[in-house]
Design brief:
With 442 residues, the chain is an alpha+beta fold. It has three domains: 122 residues, Rieske [2Fe-2S] iron-sulphur domain (Rieske Iron-sulfur Protein, 3-layer Sandwich), CATH 2.102.10; 196 residues, Alpha-Beta Complex (Naphthalene 1,2-dioxygenase Alpha Subunit, Chain A, domain 1); 72 residues. 32% of the residues lie in helices and 21% in strands. It contains twelve helices and 18 strands. Helix 3 runs antiparallel to helix 8.
Length: 442
């Protein structure tokens, strides 16, 4: 008898820890559940609560960390909760005993959480904390500095469903085409024979042979990992991804990129530069394709994927295996009904590319490195433009005796400042907001 897969009894990474704000609550959605991440002042680790105040269900993510107590305060009526979710203060209480005598009944819903591999993990079922304590995190053995690996992290919200994201990651053959000029080259595309090593409810493992040996695993429900080995030198690099089901038609990818070579280059390259030059471009290359693919597949219902798709090559073998797993153990659907969500299928494709590829909403606002870099870029724009605006009239009023000796260098620097402003304004700054990705032009 097949046991149905329980999405709520697994660990999920919500965000790289370095991207979280210690000073204010952060909202996040997982499996349709609105959650709030916050850090008590007295604690070294973050906490995750259901994003509802038990008083009147106001969102705690709109609250604040109280300056005096370090607890989470609801902004609707000022109720406060400690790191364990216990209510510690009700400003409206006529008698202080009201709080102490009813703490267990007035507490916020807390979820098990842990910090490992520089990620914040949550277990989305508050009623199975004992099971969470005995369930290992789906960690990658390669995200480990003690064995010589370095890595960077990345997070982005996506405009397609969890199942589409996993299916896409299980398909290496799309890379030369969808990511031409970024991570692949369509002229070098070749057959990718994929061999399924094992396939169970808890793990699907596949391998490919070619210039490099690649192992691909899917550890349900979120962990998809590539391990690429280079010859006999012991060099390895990986793609460690966690596919987060957010809501119907929405997902989030949390990714780590470990390697055991080129460590100095890794340390010298700013994290935000890696994001705008490569990581976001890769996902831009997929976004429109996958959003519309998902829409077309929904339109074909009750026809299923194995009839709608044509999968004649070995390169599609892992996609087939994942889809079979999803049908067998999940009945081909995510558990939205368990959190009260009714899935309504969209009848119209979103043609707004700026919305589909909204880098600020999907990534920049979540990423501390990109937020910080954008703030610096915006300040530098004002500095360069201000220098240009001030220096030109200053040179104009200089005496003739100083105009060549002093004015010429000022004008040269002013022109360089204007060039720098133009580069920041029209090339760099947009990369934190919107960059269109037109495959026909690449």
């Amino acid at each position: 008898m097949t046991v149905e897969f329980n999405f709520f009894h697994h660990w999920y990474p919500l965000s790289p820890v370095e991207d979280l704000d210690k000073k204010r609550p952060t909202p996040v959605t997982l499996l349709g559940l609105r959650l709030v991440i916050w850090k008590p002042t007295s604690s070294e680790t973050y906490r995750v609560f259901l994003d509802q105040c038990p008083h009147r269900l106001a969102p705690l993510s709109e609250g604040r960390i109280d300056d005096k107590t370090g607890n989470l305060m609801c902004s609707y009526h000022g109720w406060q909760f400690d790191s364990q979710g216990l209510c510690t203060h009700i400003p409206q209480a006529e008698n202080p005993q009201l709080v102490t005598n009813n703490q267990q009944n007035l507490c916020a819903v807390t979820l098990p959480c842990r910090q490992e591999n520089d990620l914040l993990w949550v277990w989305p079922d508050a009623h199975s904390a004992e099971q969470a304590a005995t369930t290992p995190l789906p960690l990658s053995p390669h995200v480990d500095a003690s064995i010589g690996f370095v890595w960077s992290s990345f997070v982005r919200d996506l405009e397609y469903d969890w199942q589409t994201l996993v299916e896409n990651l299980a398909d290496p053959s799309h890379v030369p085409f969808a990511h031409h000029g970024v991570q692949g080259n369509r002229e070098q595309a070749r057959p990718i024979p994929i061999k399924i090593v094992q396939s169970t409810q808890d793990l699907i493992e596949a391998t490919t042979e070619g210039h490099f040996r690649t192992t691909i695993i899917f550890e349900p429900p979120s962990h998809v990992e590539y391990v690429i080995s280079f010859g006999n030198e012991g060099k390895q690099m990986g793609l460690v991804t966690y596919c987060i089901p957010v809501s119907p038609g929405k997902s989030r990818i949390v990714a780590l990129f470990p390697r055991n070579f080129a460590k100095t280059l890794h340390r010298l390259t700013p994290r935000w530069w890696n994001h705008i030059k490569t990581r976001n471009q890769v996902l831009n290359g997929d976004m429109i394709l996958l959003n519309q693919q998902e829409h077309f597949l929904q339109q074909k219902k009750p026809v299923t994927w194995n009839t709608a798709y044509k999968l004649p090559t070995s390169a599609d073998r892992l996609v087939i295996e994942f889809r079979k797993w999803f049908d067998t153990y999940c009945h081909g659907q995510l558990p939205w009904s368990k959190v009260g969500i009714t899935v309504s299928e969209s009848s119209k494709i979103n043609e707004n590319r700026e919305e589909m590829l909204d880098l600020y909403r999907q990534h920049t606002q979540h990423c501390s490195s990109c937020r910080g870099a954008l703030a610096v870029v915006q300040r530098l724009q004002w500095v360069f433009l201000g220098y240009f605006a001030i220096s030109v009239p200053v040179v104009a009023v200089l005496p003739d005796t100083l105009r060549v000796r002093l004015g010429l260098p000022l004008i040269v620097v002013a022109l360089l400042s204007l060039a720098a402003y133009t580069w920041l304004k029209f090339w760099l700054s947009p990369k934190f907001y919107f960059v269109d990705y037109v495959h026909a032009d690449r």
